[in-house]
Design a protein that fits this description.
heterodimer, A: alpha/beta, nine-stranded mixed β-sheet, two-stranded antiparallel sheet, 15 helices, globular, B: mainly beta, four-stranded antiparallel β-sheet, about 5% helix
């Protein structure tokens, strides 16, 4: 087994000669891989779908999956730690269900990014690139998958399950969608409320049509009949791509059924919890079954944890030690555990890559508001499915959770790994002129 | 500021007995919980008014709005407490004579203020904790309505308890420590406060005199113990604990002895308060993914 620092290191197949040489140049000579190892890794890293769970606002790594019980109190915070199913690995007491499921995922504790603000780090997290004036907006992971795979049977190839495009109170992030490729590659936004009712904002763009609640079948049929009566070839052509996608979806019975959570057993819906995040994850599972290639579930539209007219993201500059135990962690723990169980039970994980992460971590040192601020120097991500070797922790942070003591995993590495798993290798990426850099996270496979 | 350790041998032995002797669970004498709401929405911060059958709580009414609601226990009717409120409102507490109540209002980006309502003359007093990200946390109003105690962070990363009068004019820092003090609650006499603190290394429950002296530790577990609230006669305290790996409701004597588990539910049980009759606990329980308000009799546990 080859080792890179503390990592077990392997590459994957499909890597171009150029990229392979680049990777090889970056590695110690002893880390060069054999063709057989490359082929093995490639065989393990195969996905038909990516589910990208976005913990928008950035959860504290110390208060969840990377606790530091031996650090001073003004770092470690007030939460106790509990054992996981992995010997010697502990989480905080706020995520007991996920602690009992560490055999179902791999945890990276050495993520880093390069922007300490939400929009910038959000764009990094979605594209691997910086945002700013005069900077080309790169397409997001989902948009790249969307362009590479094309549309499926009535469903758009890149679906975002969220109340809205990720944003803070000032602006939306630049990198959520197609960027300079255009809006044709933007995500198709679907809102799912705490009761599992689905709303498609794109329909607001169609004259005379109000948002549909898919769960209300009669209302939906009435709406569809109204649309069909009013739509002619000319009016259809005049719509933008998202309205066309919405109309196509709603007139496709198979696609429509994928959005109907009423078809799920009551007990299963309950397992996910009565929260928008939980029901969105259940909807994501149905979209995986419908072979949507890229599903992005966002915790919230806004980052802000407690601000008027926002939807309670993870940005806990204040009330970190109130909100995490009271609301955020219990919801995450319940919903994401149910999602993992459900996906494994249905045999979907062999062909689905699940990635769960925020845009950065939070300050290890408690701030002057008895909470935690932004921390781009170290955070976590959770990976499962598509050949990911579960039951392992990859990377490590220092004694206070401030910096990785192992190789930092960058957003470009996250993107390259997701895209490689989807068969979008370095050659395909070069053809699309995206993501020329980034190191495949070999340790996952 | 020093704090005393509890004499927790009694509670520890009871806990061990419950774990070791099958069928002798401490919660076995609590009755079955009765469900009081059915909408399943996220609720927290339960508080009874003192002269009625009304329970006030905060609820995630829409994806972007937490409102205070009132539940009439006799009729089952639910209505908004502040009908015109258009921003998040949480954590309400009432004076015994109902002439004053206090709550927290989310009046800016990551910013909350303390509000005290004078019911008789309609005046509202507001304590703005400062510009930028600044949040008043939890609060309690004295039974006579004259004082409010609230938690507020300090520059050193700690969080202290402050007292102010009901006009929010004269502020006094009750606790001065390097720790996080939170969730204060007055005793029925107003002479004592119970609160959560990290003085022990994690969240445990403490009590002290209302002037901030005589801090005494009531619980001592590596899991979270939090959100204490006195019984109407002041002899008991109800609180939430994660000591068994899940959020459950516990009660104990006001001196920390005789700690007993009230609920045993695979979901999250939290935000408990006493019914004014002193025989029941009302709390938010998560059952089948829904967060509703439950009432449970503890009459058989009050020895």
């Amino acid at each position: 087994m080859l080792r890179l620092g503390e990592f077990k290191s392997r590459s994957c197949d499909g890597i171009s000669r150029r990229a392979f040489v680049q990777a090889g140049a970056a590695l110690p000579l002893t880390a060069m891989l054999t063709g057989e190892q490359i082929a093995q890794a490639a065989a393990q890293a195969q996905a038909k779908t990516v589910v990208f769970v976005w913990l928008w606002g950035a959860p504290s790594h110390l208060d969840t999956f990377d606790p530091k019980p031996d650090a001073p109190l003004n770092y470690r915070g007030p939460f106790g730690t509990i054992p996981t199913t992995l010997p010697g690995v502990r989480f905080t007491e706020l995520v007991p269900q996920l602690a009992a499921r560490t055999d179902k995922f791999a945890l990276i504790r050495s993520n880093i990014t390069h922007d300490g603000g939400h929009p910038g780090a959000g764009t990094f997290g979605y594209t691997g690139h910086r945002e700013g004036r005069g900077i080309t907006i790169q397409p997001s992971w989902g948009s790249i998958v969307s362009r590479h795979h094309g549309a499926g049977a009535g469903l758009p190839p890149y679906v975002m399950l969220s109340r809205g495009i990720p944003r803070d109170v000032v602006k939306t992030i630049d990198g959520y969608g197609g960027g300079d490729w255009g809006k044709a590659y933007d995500p198709f936004l679907i809102q799912c409320d705490e009761l599992g009712s689905v709303n498609i904002p794109a329909l607001k763009l169609v004259d005379g049509v109000t948002p549909n609640r898919i769960a209300h079948r009669r209302n939906l049929q009435d709406q569809l009949d109204k649309i069909k009566r009013n739509v002619t070839a000319d009016t259809f052509d005049a719509w933008d791509s998202k309205s066309k996608q919405a109309f196509t979806l709603l007139t496709n019975k198979h696609a429509l059924e994928s959005l109907d959570l009423a078809k799920e057993p009551t007990e299963l819906r309950e397992n996910y919890g009565q929260s928008s995040f939980g029901q969105s994850l259940l909807l994501a599972r149905r979209l995986v079954e419908a072979e949507v290639p890229f599903v992005n579930v966002s915790w919230s539209e806004f980052v802000e944890a407690f601000s008027p007219n926002t939807d309670f993201g993870w940005d806990t500059h204040v009330k970190n030690f109130d909100l995490l135990p009271n609301r955020h962690c219990p919801v995450l723990d319940t919903a994401f555990s149910a999602f993992l169980d459900d996906m494994y039970d249905r045999g979907l994980m062999d062909s689905t890559l699940v990635v769960c992460m925020g845009e950065f971590g939070r300050t290890p040192r408690i701030n002057n508001r008895a909470a935690r601020d932004h921390w781009q120097h170290n955070y976590f991500s959770i990976w499962a499915g598509a050949g990911v070797k579960t039951g392992q922790v990859i990377g490590a942070s220092d004694a206070k959770g401030e910096r990785p003591v192992t190789r930092g995993i960058e957003p470009t590495g996250v993107g390259v790994t997701m895209l490689d798993c989807m068969g979008i290798d370095s050659i395909a990426r070069a053809e699309l002129n995206v993501l020329p850099e980034g190191e495949f996270i070999h340790e996952l496979f | 500021m020093n704090s005393s350790k509890p004499g927790s041998a009694c509670s520890l032995s009871l806990l061990l007995a419950a774990l070791l002797i099958p069928g002798l669970h401490q919660f076995s004498r609590a009755a079955e919980p009765v469900r009081l709401t059915t909408d399943g929405k996220m609720k927290q911060d339960l508080c009874f008014t003192h002269d009625t059958q009304e329970l006030i709580y905060s609820v995630l009414k829409t994806p972007q709005l937490i409102k205070l609601q009132r539940l009439n226990l006799e009729s089952g009717n639910v209505e908004d407490f502040h009908t015109s409120a258009n921003t998040n409102e949480i954590y309400i507490d009432f004076a015994k004579d109902m002439k004053h109540y206090a709550y927290i209002r989310n009046d800016g980006n990551l910013h909350t203020s303390l509000q005290v309502q004078d019911v008789e003359n309609g005046e509202v007093h507001s304590l703005n904790p400062g510009g930028g990200f600044a949040c008043v946390r939890a609060l309690t109003i004295s039974p006579d309505g004259q004082n409010v105690v609230y938690s507020f962070p300090e520059m050193n990363g700690s969080q202290q308890l402050w007292q102010t009068d009901n006009k929010l004019q004269n502020k006094t820092e009750l606790t001065k420590s390097d720790f996080i003090d939170a969730y204060p609650r007055y005793s029925p006499t107003g002479n004592v406060l119970t609160f959560t603190s990290t003085r022990s290394g994690n969240f445990d429950i403490f009590r002290m005199s209302a002037d901030g002296t005589g801090i005494f530790q009531l619980t001592d577990h590596s899991g979270i113990d939090t959100r204490p609230s006195f019984s109407p006669d002041g002899s008991k305290i109800v609180y939430t604990s994660l000591r068994q790996g899940n959020y459950e409701i516990f009660i104990m004597n006001a001196d920390g002895s005789n700690q007993k588990q009230v609920t045993s539910n695979s979901g999250k049980d939290d935000f408990a308060c006493w019914h004014p009759d002193g025989k029941r606990i009302v709390y938010v329980g998560e059952v089948k993914g829904k967060r509703d308000i439950y009432s449970i009799s503890v009459e058989g546990m009050l020895d």
